[in-house]
Amino acid sequence: MTGYGQARGGKLPVRWHIEIRTWNHRFFEFTSRLPNVLLSFEGKIRDIIRDRVKRGKISISVALKNGNDAQDHLTLDEKKVAFYLRNIQKIQKKFCLEGKMNVNTLLAIPNVFVSQTRENDSEALWNGFKGVLDGTLRNLVRSREKEGLALVRDFDKRLDLITGSVDRIQKETVKTAEKQFVRLKDKISELIGNAAIDEKRIEHEVAMMAERMDVTEEIVRLGNHLKHFHSLIRRGNEVGKELDFIAQEMNREVNTIGSKSQDSAISADVIRIKSEIEKIREQVQNVE
């Protein structure tokens, strides 16, 4: 389910700006852009978000604004610089490459200056960040709840359309036996001319045809699936996979009705129902 949440805050001199975006996805997929001081907390952040968002692509972006003492926490990563110098010289020697290294070359090394955060500072940073993260998640959940309500309205509309088609199919199946009787009688009359027609034999044949085309069980099961789907979308919690399964079962019942039917009106309603179920299945992928 798509959603967006952001929040700003923190204890001076540290200020946080957090943005979280979510997109539709069948599974949980997490990406992050974090400042260096939070890299060690990435797993913790992921777990906190997963407690609130069970499904979808989730992207978190964190910006850190520090106060006047920001430079006090920065130090040159001498080990990293030595590693780069050593390996650059090794490459030059091995491949006979010319060129001199200067300060600009060293400054081009990613994160050559790192934040040296003391353990007590790290805990304070996390506590300040956690409060802002909680606020961001609350805003994200509100955004997703709004989309959830829109999804429920869309589901209700499609379920009503399907229910209308099922009702028409149920009424049409009652008429089908009568239509088959008249059609079979007319066909026999055309074949045998003025000879006597065995009405009982025709009734027997029509009864056998009606039994083969009977869709009562499928209609009952489809009706139950519709009621179950309707109740689930109002239950909350994690219902996405269950809704997807019910939509598949609905589609299976409709396919059976279509295969048994020889009536054009019923076939038309079967096509309408399958179209609505397909739209429902697409939307169900947005539900946790």
TrEMBL record:
Positions of the Endoribonuclease YicC-like N-terminal domain = 1-151
> What's in the keyword line of the UniProt record?
Endonuclease, Hydrolase, Nuclease
Q: Which residues form the Endoribonuclease YicC-like C-terminal domain?
A: 170-288
Record's Pfam families? YicC-like_C, YicC-like_N
Which InterPro entries has this protein been placed in?
A: YicC-like_C (IPR013551), YicC-like_N (IPR013527), YicC/YloC-like (IPR005229)
What cofactors does this protein use? a divalent metal cation
**Gene Ontology MF annotations:** hydrolase activity; RNA endonuclease activity
Per the record, the domain of life is: Bacteria
Give the UniProt family note: Belongs to the YicC/YloC family.
Report the protein name in the record: YicC family protein
